[in-house]
Amino acid sequence: MTPLKSLLLSLCLLTLLAACGGDDPTETLPPVTPPDEEEPIIPPGDDEDNANANEADEAHPFATDLSIPHLDAENQYVEHTVSFREQEILNYALEWVEDKRHAAWVAFSFDSETCQKNVNRTNTWMPDPFISSSPQESDHKSDGFDKGHLCASEDRVYNRTANEQTFYYTNISPQMTSFNGGYWVTFEKLLQTWARSGAYEHVYVTKGGTLNHLLTNFTGTQKAADGRLPQTDADGLTNHGLACPAYYFMAILAKQGENYQAIGFLVEHRDDYGYSNDHQAPVELIQAHAINIDELEAQTGLDFFCNLPDKTEAQVEATYEENAWEWKVTE
Length: 331
Hints:
The protein is an alpha+beta fold.
């Protein structure tokens, strides 16, 4: 190749490189200024989000059961279990409030097995072996009140041990005789009818008395079986120092397939309803006490059905459909 051709070829190559523009490692990009105080991007939630769920652990494996309200770390949480059909199952759970000497609530559920009626009432009254401050029989003597079950004896008749556990004194509340045997009993029978109707796969229940609203400075009008009128002091305590709720409640969640429905009841603790063991309240009166779960939470200060996904919980707690329930007692 002649010197002239070599020169021309070199010039062509230089021109081509300049046109293509190679990467310059020393070239700097203009700085990017981030927006002031930009909020982090949070992905949208899904149907399974649950911000207020309980956490189960080895000592409390049933804390995530749908019947269990949001737990209060200041109280003692206890799970009473039984061996049934070669499985350890939750019979009922409770949260014990030490200074009130009363449960904040009891929680349990009915399914195809726990709704069964296999045994009779046992009447095995005893202190709760898992709660050192459990009341004794003497705490319910000569006070003018009945020993009212929270989780009713008739709620747990699928197994003898299960029924015996309902007679722990931590599951008992001081109730006026006519209220216990004449009025509240109809609510219990309606619940049991729903649970044993076969209409639902599961019925989850939380029951209790309002420890945030006690019956203070009260003297009843009807004597109990011990011949005394029920009385409470200025702190809402019986003569043995047990809290006496001004209201009793039920929170009920029924599940069939993927569908849930819920209803609440809030009932004033009185002895002048006009009913008794021999003349129990008709079911028609019960509907007047029905409220949605959001309202019940506002009245009790409790967070029911917290283990549901948040979206489902919000939907079922906001309202109740009266026509979705069968208002008939067969128990």
